[in-house]
Amino acid sequence: MNNEIKQNKINYVFIISLILTSIVVITAIISPDIFETISNSMFKVIINNFSWIYTIGMLALVIFAVFLIFSKYGNIRLGKDTDRPEFSNLSWFSMLFGAGMGIGLVFFGAVEPMKHFIAPIGSQPGSSEAVTFAMQQSYIHWGLHPWAAYSIMGLALAYFQFRKDAPGLISSVFLPILGENGVRGPIGKTIDILAVFTTVTGIATSLGMGTMQIAGGLEYVFNIENTIQIQILIIAIATILYTLSSTSGLDKGIKTLSNINLSLAAFILIGAILIGPKLDMLRNLGNGGVAYLTQFISQSLYIDPSKAWISQWRVFYWALWIAWIPFVSIFIARISKGRTIREFIIGVTLVPALACIIWFTVFGTLGINLGAEFASNATSVTETALFKVFSNYQFGNILSVVSMVLLCTFFVSSADSATYVLGMFTSNGDLNPSNQKKIIWGIVQAGLAIALLLSGGLQTLQMVSIVSAFPFAIIVNISIVSIVKALREEVKQSEKTLADTEEDLSKECIISKMG
User: Fold this and answer.
1) Distance CA 406, CA 404 (A)
2) What digits encode the pLDDT tens for the residues 146-196?
3) d(CA 409, CA 416)
4) Are 145 and 396 in contact (CB under 8 A)?
5) Which residue from 83, 108, 148, 383 could staple onto 112, CB 3.0 to 4.6 Å apart?
6) Average pLDDT of 215-240?
7) CA-wise closest residue to 424 among 216, 196, 215
C-alpha cells in the first residue's frame, strides 16, 4: 500500500518533460549538424503531408470563437457566479498582449510587410497591389487567427479550472471526453507532457528571435559586433532577470513588466506614426483591411502548389502560435477569472488583433515607403531591418534605442510568463508553483534557445517550431468537442434547475391559494 502511494506521488509529467527537453538541448549543443538534419527531415514530412491540418485547424478555432460570442453560452462566467475580474481591463490587456505576442511584434513589424512587398503572389513586386498584398498577409498572420487560438484554449482552461475546480492543466480540458480516470491516466499525462515540450520549444524560438534582433540592433546602432558570444551573453542576462521576476510573484513581476511593455510599445507606435507618412498609413490600412476581410476564408485555406511559400509564412506562423497556445492560454486563463465567456472572447480576440493590425500597418508603411530597392536590401538581414528603417526617419535613432529596450522587456516578460506556466504544468496545476521549478524551467528554455541559435539561427528556429507544434495542433482542435460538450451539459443542468424552481414556486402558489 505504501509503495502504491509513493508511486502515485511520482511527478511523471515533470520528470519525463525535463528528460525530453534536456535530450533535445544536449543533442543540439553537442551535435548541431545532426540536430539540424533531423529537424529538417521531420519538417519536410509535416510540410509535404500535413500542412492542411494547420490551415483548417486555425480557421476552425476562429469560427468557434465567433460562435461563442453570439451563442447562449456567452453569459457563463469563468469562475463561480459571484466571482469578478481580479485585474483592471488595462492591466489585463497589457498582460495578455505581452504574453501573447511580445517579441514577434518588434521582430516582424517592419520586415514582414517589406518581404511581402518585394515578393508578392500574383502581382508585380513594388506595385500598389503588392502593398495591399503585404498588408493583407500581415493581418492574416497577426490578426484574428492567433488570438482566436489563444482564446479557445484559454477559455477552456479558465472554465474547467475556476468553474469546475479542475487542476490548471491542459489535460483538464478533456474531462468531458476522457473522464476523471482518463485525465489522470497515461493519456492525460501524455497531453500534459506534450504541452510542456511545446511550450519550451515555442518560447525558446521566440527568445532566439529576440536575441538575434537585440544583438543585431547593438551592432547596427552601437557598432558592437554581433557574435554568438554576444547572443549567449544576452540570453544569460535575460535569464537572470526573468528568473528574478518570475520568483517575485504574478502581481509584482509579470504585472509590472507587462505595464512597462504596454507603455514602451505605445511610445514607439505613436512615435512611428508622428514621424511617418500618415496618409499612406491610413490608405494601406483601408486597402489591406478590405482585402483581409473579403478574402478571409480563401486566404485562411490557401496552400501554394510548391508549399515553399506557406512553409516560410503561413504554416510557420500557425505552428508558432500553436506552440505558444499552452503557455499563453494558461496564463490568460489565470488572469481572467471572473469574466464572462463573451467578455473573455472579445477581449482576448478582437482588441489585441486590432492592435496588431495597426502595428503592422504603421511599421510596414514606414519600410515600404522607402521603396522596393531599400526593402530588398533591408530585409536581407531580418534582425536589423527595423533599425535600418528607423535610420531613414527623423528621431529614428531614439526609436531604435527604445525598441531594443522594449525587446528586452518583452523578452523577460514572455520568458517570465512561460516559467510560471511551466511550473504550473509540472506541479499538477498548482497556481503557485515552487520557485525551484520555475528556476529549472527558466534555465532549460534558455539552454534550448542557445542550442537552436547554435544549430542554424532563424531557419532552425522556424523548423523546430513547426515540428514541435504538430501534435498540439491536433490536441487544440479536439478541445472544441470537449468545450461544447461541457457547455451544453451546463446549460442543460441550468435549465433543469430553473424548471424545477419554477415548478416548486407554482406548487407553493397553488397551496397558498387553496389555503
Assistant:
1) 5
2) 999 999 999 999 999 999 989 889 999 999 999 988 898 999 999 999 989
3) 10
4) no
5) 108
6) 88
7) 196
